[in-house]
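S.,

As promised, the DQA run. Input:
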Amino acid sequence: MSVNKTSKLKITVIHGPNLNLLGKRETKIYGHVTLDEINKKLHEIALSENIEISFFQSNHEGAIIDCIQDSLESHGFLINPAAFTHTSIAIRDALLAVNKPFVEVHLSDINNREDFRKISYFSDVAISVVSGLGENSYYKGLKTLIDHIKNEA
Ligand code: DQA
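Predicted complex:
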């Protein structure tokens, strides 16, 4: 990917289905943190790194695909595909189609839950996967993505 060195680096954060309910949803697994709180912290990290960041959440597979296709100005994606992790070849294909680096994150440890969660359609093509650290999965994932993008620039 060629990066225009004069333009600000941009990252798009995508949250998949049911993540809008964080804070209320299965709190024993996902904790009490809300999506707004996670986005606020991600925004602070991005600001401190002079990165522009935008946020998108949807419960709909097609809307997530449209977001990926429409994020032409983004240099990479931080994505928690949520349940689509285990089902969506279409979102995987969209990420490959736009040919941008992405980091896959999960609050819970998807390898230590039900067997169906062990399958990810994203992990083999992600630059990194961070799973099982709660909200810190997002923050670690963002830092990894920023390092990767800055090294490419
Ligand atoms: C999740 C794990 C997925 O298996 C689940 O469907 C989610 C959230 C996580 O962040 O731990 O919705 O992606």
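Residues 10-152 form a domain with the Rossmann fold fold (CATH 3.40.50.9100). The first helix runs from residue 27 to 30.

- D.
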